Amino acid sequence: MKTDRDLERQLASIDRRGYPAYKSLRGTYDFGDFELDIAHVQGDPFAAPSQLAVYVPGDVSGLPACCRDAAHRRTATEDLLVRRFSKEAAQASFKVGGSGKSGFIGTSNPGPEILARSACEIAPDGAVMLRFEAGLPAHGRTIDARAAARMLLDLIPVCVERALMLDDAGRRAAQKAAELADDQRAVRSAMRERDLVAFVADGSVLPRSSGVSAKPLAGARPFTSPESMRVTLELPHRGRVRGMGIRRGITLIVGGGYHGKSTLLKALQEGVYDHIAGDGRELVATDETAMKLRAEDSRVVHAVDISPFINNLPDGRDTRSFSTEDASGSTSQAASTVEALEAGARTLLIDEDTSATNFMVRDALMEAVVAAEHEPITPFVERVRALWERHGVSCVLVMGSSGAFFPVADSVIQMDAYEANDITERVRAVLADARLAGTYPEAPGLGVSAGKASEAGETSASSSSDQDAPASRPLELGGRLERRSTGRPGRRGRARGGDGAGTARHEHLKVRGRGRDGFSVGSYDADLRLVEQLVDAEQSAALAQMVRVVLEHGLLDGMRALRDVVDEAFRVLDEQGWEALSPYGDAACGLARPRPCELFAALNRLR
């Protein structure tokens, strides 16, 4: 293997040559305490940065065994190392100048969510692989070897030493991250045992500092659970923790404007992910399958059975296999609901503010004016109990203006100046008076006798089976897609393994990302702007590559069930690692693992 001195000599030999001469640097170099792999060199200083990686052996990284002996601990520790390296890289970036991206050093820059990322992998023996990007310096398109030597031989080794070779403080930080991961795992396990759809620990800080910031709001009121909904969990490191447990069934969150309804729901929708310490929501957890639903005007719909919600259209179209390139708000929300069930969601999250009104409710006066036989939409309020009782699918809804869901709810939380109050009994009393006055008929949920709602829901849900859920349908896109890749992308192993020679190269579909907003693959496009639980642009980037693999292997042939397609995509990722999502087998930073339901969402939105 070549050494850092070989790299120094090679740099000197290409000084002031044309930028393509940088490609001669590809390969792996031994720096003593770590190895540097230059996997891909950019074509010119204005192109996407070069892809590099460092490999730090376990006896040098200093990672304690407790930080790497289980998958959830490794993910938390990898997240910590990415944050440490990103911080050091930000300080070293652009310390050498030049044209274009000259001098740039960077890797993934995570938000508060803890996600498995291609930027870092920890081996069972504690060895660390960290992938990053660098803009190799140039003036114009002429190589600046002196600046490159400072970047590669001085600045990057300092980043590696400070971020990835842990001292006592670094080891303590890694251990704390692993312990928090243990506690978060214990919360989710306790939720399943106690039949909870969500848990919000007392003392959590739910408000964010602004609508465009994920940082907790300074001075915000800490969350306190209502006594009637309070549960106590025993966690392995934090010990006894109290908080609000939301039971499975139908839960309403109500209250006046600006009192914290949507803030609580947003914490729940992002509670499908673990969060770092200091975020304020590190002990807020939600059923991992929960999906946030909303209206999406103009979205594409592919052969979805929306007949439970929309039927008897005036033009006679069959809604048992409904397709459109331009769905209305109600149609899109109906399709998204069925797609969520198909994807395996056990919990639906809905905010009245972002829903289609005619999909959610239809009041008595409208029914009196427009006869039922002239209305093709069966509102969600009339289906939500069946979703719970027949399919075991829970629902958490934020409602601010309509009381139509009160009779079918199992519990009601009122947010008052960011304080949560259980008003279920008060709602029962109001409904009892209304029924006596003839305003509301008897109904399931809060409409049954006081104290019986939860038992009724639990009995019905426990008798449901997976066979009740919508069957996964095949998906065949319009147009003809030619297979452009032979076989699956090859795997080179860890990023330091050679200069790439011998890696099979095929013509692949071109992928273009648009951050969290979506992506295009070949001639297909996916609009993900309203898939709200995608929290990181790197998840969208990973989805784009997964869709590329699916398309190149012809899996959307109209024969395979969509669930089988999604399962196969994740099986390949699990077995082959991040290299499976690289067109040429070289893993790079910039990808974060999405949930399977987000791949369902992306495939369902391809047009």
Name its key features.
single chain, 607 residues, alpha+beta, seven-stranded mixed sheet, six-stranded mixed sheet, 15 helices, globular
DSSP E strands, number: 30
* Number of continuous helical runs: 15
- Mean pLDDT, as a whole number? 90
Assembly state of the chains shown: single chain
Alpha-beta content class:
alpha+beta
Distance between the termini: 48 Å
User: Which overall shape is indicated by the principal axes computed on the Cα atoms?
Assistant: globular
Q: How large, in whole angstroms, is the Cα Rg?
A: 27 Å
Poorly predicted residue ranges: 448-467, 479-505
**Helix content, binned percent:** 25-40%
Strand content: 15-25%
Largest sheet: 7 strands, mixed
Description:
This protein has 607 residues and is an alpha+beta fold. Helices cover 31% and strands 20% of the residues. Strands 1, 2, 3, 4, 5, 7 and 8 form a 7-stranded mixed beta sheet that branches. A 6-stranded mixed beta sheet has the order 19-22-23-16-24-25, sandwiched between helices. A hairpin with a 5-residue loop joins β7 (120-122) and β8.
